[in-house]
């Protein structure tokens, strides 16, 4: 069972192509076999939440909250590690800020 904050390897289809790529991602939530994930990139020049090697990442990376996908459970090949409680709270806080406009 996938949990919010799990860092996984997932097959995702990019918006600018029909190509499917294997990418690391953070599970935001799972419901009825659908998994909502935020992409992770090792391009540390991109905006997002830093995810460092000493936190479990293979290399210093960035969680991109502007890069959200829905994939089926079958598209997740494995769980690599789980974000710390502090990092999960940071992801939640940043998502809440971005979705704040929905309350207005």
Task: Give your account of this protein's structure.
The chain is mainly β. It has a single domain, classed as SH3 type barrels. 14% of the residues lie in helices and 48% in strands. It has a 6-stranded antiparallel beta sheet with strand order 4-5-3-2-1-6. A hairpin with a 6-residue loop joins strand 1 and strand 2. The radius of gyration is 13 Å and the shape is globular. The N and C termini lie far apart (34 Å).
What is the secondary structure topology, with strand pairs?
Elements: E1 6-13, E2 20-31, E3 34-41, E4 49-51, E5 61-72, E6 76-82, H1 85-99
Antiparallel strand pairs: 1-2, 1-6, 2-3, 3-5, 4-5
What attributes does this structure have?
14% helix; 6 strands; SH3 type barrels; single chain; 1 helix; mainly beta; six-stranded antiparallel sheet; 104 residues
């Amino acid at each position: 069972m996938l949990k919010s904050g799990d860092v996984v390897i997932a097959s995702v289809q990019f918006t600018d192509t029909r190509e499917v790529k294997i990418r690391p991602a953070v599970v935001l939530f799972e419901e009825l076999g659908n998994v909502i994930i935020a992409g992770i990139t090792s391009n540390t020049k991109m905006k997002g939440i830093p995810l460092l090697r000493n936190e479990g990442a293979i290399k210093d990376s960035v969680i991109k909250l502007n890069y959200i996908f829905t994939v089926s459970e079958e598209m997740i090949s494995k769980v690599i590690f789980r974000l710390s409680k502090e990092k999960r709270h940071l992801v939640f806080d940043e998502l809440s800020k971005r979705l704040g406009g929905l309350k207005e």
